[in-house]
Amino acid sequence: MFLAYDQGFEHGPIEFNDKNVDPLNIIEIAQKGKFTGVVFQKGIAEKYKKEIKASKVPLIIKLNGKTNLLKGEAVSRQECSVKEAVKLGADAVGYTIYFGSKFENEMIKEFGNIEEEAHAAGLAVILWAYPRGKNVKENGKTMAYAARVGLELGADVVKIGYFGSVKDLKWAVKSAGRCKVVIAGGKKTKGMKFINMVNDIMKAGAAGLAVGRNIWQDKQPVEVAKSVREVIW
Ligand code: FBP
Prior knowledge:
Blueprint: E1 2-4, H1 7-10, H2 23-32, E2 37-40, H3 42-47, H4 49-55, E3 59-62, E4 64-65, E5 77-78, H5 82-87, E6 92-99, H6 104-120, E7 124-131, H7 140-152, E8 157-160, H8 166-175, E9 180-184, H9 193-203, E10 208-211, H10 213-216, H11 221-232
Parallel strand pairs: 1-2, 1-10, 2-3, 3-6, 6-7, 7-8, 8-9, 9-10
Antiparallel strand pairs: 4-5
Helix pairs in contact: 7-8, 9-11
């Protein structure tokens, strides 16, 4: 149950309100919501190190990122080293690959090096696996492919999207073998939609979630986290 908070980088502060724009608010939600990991970029991990440590929530540092001001083929390059993540107290590192982008080979290469270095340092490795590019559709089928490549590249956990089919997700989970599958949340939804999705993905055999907006954009984030926990455990 990972709380993702790299959207300020990926989408911009347009995602935030007065409260959740503050990383301290997210650290508090992660702690009170009993998340098993919180995802930050290195800048937040460094500036809020003391509070993150005190929260005792395991830290996942995202090693690459891109803004959505960049148009064209999807590419996200490494901007934080494994060494820096270790220094900042990370328990795991995360990295996004856009499979099918014309730059996928560069991202695969970077991830290959990260995986070796992180495992040698005793960190877990999480792959954000998104099929994305001019000629690629992001759907249940391509997600299974992305999940499989996660296993083959040595990720411990692969994070993929969910497109509404339990059957497709079951196949993605099977394709990922011993690499655990977690699901991204997407845009904030209303009513029970999010919790119903959590139900579905657990039925499909996913290990859990790595979500952001459906938690911290809610008026009662800790309550939503509790409902999620009740489904997962
Ligand atoms: P959300 O649950 O808020 O969608 O977060 C999951 C996540 O993978 C984030 O870690 C990341 O910032 C974002 O989605 C990227 O979304 P996209 O690539 O669709 O813009």
